[in-house]
C-alpha cells in the first residue's frame, strides 16, 4: 500500500519511520546518503499538507540517552536538504515530543530524538514493544514506513506501530523492494553477482541462496582468501576463516554441479601492513608471500571481472574488493564499481560498504540502476528471508 492510498493527508499527523542511521565524526555526518534518500517521501507528505513526525535511530545505544547518539546533527542536515525548518524533539514520547508535535502546522516537519534511547523500542518482549508503539501512536494519526535499512528488525517503530495505526510504505521502501525483487525473482540473464567484504561468514546465507539463481559469482575482498585457501593456495597473512573452509569447499562443488561459474581473484595487491603509505606489490593469487596480506584484487583480476561483467544483463554487487578506504587498496573496488555501472541492464548495489564506496570514491551514483540504503537488510533480502517490517505492511 502506498501513501496515495492513505486518503487526504491535509492536517493529518503522519508518523514516518526513516532510516537516518548515518556515520558521524563528532557532530559531522560523513556520509549523508540515507538522509538524502529519506527526503522524497517527506516532501511528498509535506506537499500533501501532512504534519510529518519523523522517527529514527542512530547507532546502538543501550536504551538510555547518550549524547553521542543524539539525532540533533541529523535534524540540522535534514533541514538543509529540505530547505525548511525541522523541529527537533529532545525525547521520543515525552513532553518535548508532545509539545513539538502539537506545535506543527500543516506541511511542517519534526524529528524525534533517537528511538533507541527507550529500551522498549528494541525489546524482545512483545508487550514492552507494544506499549512503546502505543505511546508513539498517540503522536500521530497515520504511519508511513520508509526506513528500508531497518525493515528486517522486529522493533516497535518498524513492526508494532504498523499494527497500531493505518499504514503505508514510503517511496524509498517501495523503490528498494522493487529493485530487489527484480533481481531476485525475475533477473534477465546473464545474471552476475559480485561479492566482497571481509568475512565469508557474513555472506553464507547469501551465497547459499544465490548459487541457485545466478550464472556467475565473482568473489573478491577479504572473503576471497578463504576460497583461495580451500582451493589449496597459501594466503600468507591475509584474512582467513579456517572454520569456514569445509563450507566453502561445498560451495565450490555446488557451483560446479549447477554450472555456476565461480570466479576468484587471479592476482592480489599485497602489503605487510594495512596503512595508507604501505609498500605494495602485485602477486599471483597462487603465490602470496607468508609475510604479506592480500588487501585488494590485482589488475589481472580487474580485467577478468570486467570481462565477466561485460555481457551481463543483471548485476548485483555487495561488498568491497579490498580495503578501499585506503588509497593503495582502492583500485579494485573502484574499477569493479565502474564496470558494474557500465552494465547494459539492471545494476543494483547492495548497500552498506559498497554503497559507501561508490560515494567515497566519487563515482557517478546515477550510473547505477539502484544503490541500496540498506546494510544488514540487503543481505537478508539476498538470503531470501521474509522481513517482519515488510510483512506487517501487508496486513
Ligand atoms: C543499518 O545501519 O544497517 C540500519 O540502520 C540498522 O541498524 P541496526 O543494525 O543497528 O539495527
Automatic annotation (TrEMBL):
Q: Copy the pathway line from the protein's UniProt record.
A: Carbohydrate degradation; glycolysis; pyruvate from D-glyceraldehyde 3-phosphate: step 2/5
Q: Quick one: which residues bind (2R)-3-phosphoglycerate?
A: 34, 116, 153
Residues given in the record as substrate binding sites: 19-21, 34, 57-60, 116, 153
Swiss-Prot/TrEMBL catalytic activity: (2R)-3-phosphoglycerate + ATP = (2R)-3-phospho-glyceroyl phosphate + ADP
Q: GO cellular component terms?
A: cytosol
Q: List the molecular function annotations (GO) for this entry.
A: ADP binding; ATP binding; phosphoglycerate kinase activity
State where the protein is found. Cytoplasm
Q: Which domain of life is it from?
A: Bacteria
Tell me which Gene Ontology terms the entry assigns under biological process: gluconeogenesis; glycolytic process
Keywords, alphabetical = ATP-binding, Cytoplasm, Glycolysis, Kinase, Nucleotide-binding, Transferase
Per UniProt, ATP binds at 203, 294, 325, 351-354
Question: Which SUPFAM superfamilies does the record match to this protein?
Answer: Phosphoglycerate kinase
Q: Does the keyword Kinase apply?
A: yes
| EC number(s) recorded for this UniProt protein | 2.7.2.3
Pfam families noted in UniProt: PGK (PF00162)
Database matches in InterPro entries: Phosphoglycerate_kinase (IPR001576), Phosphoglycerate_kinase_CS (IPR015911), Phosphoglycerate_kinase_N (IPR015824), Phosphoglycerate_kinase_sf (IPR036043)
Q: Which family, according to UniProt?
A: Belongs to the phosphoglycerate kinase family.
Q: Identify the HAMAP family for this entry.
A: Phosphoglyc_kinase
Oligomeric state and interaction partners are given as: Monomer.
The molecule here is called Phosphoglycerate kinase
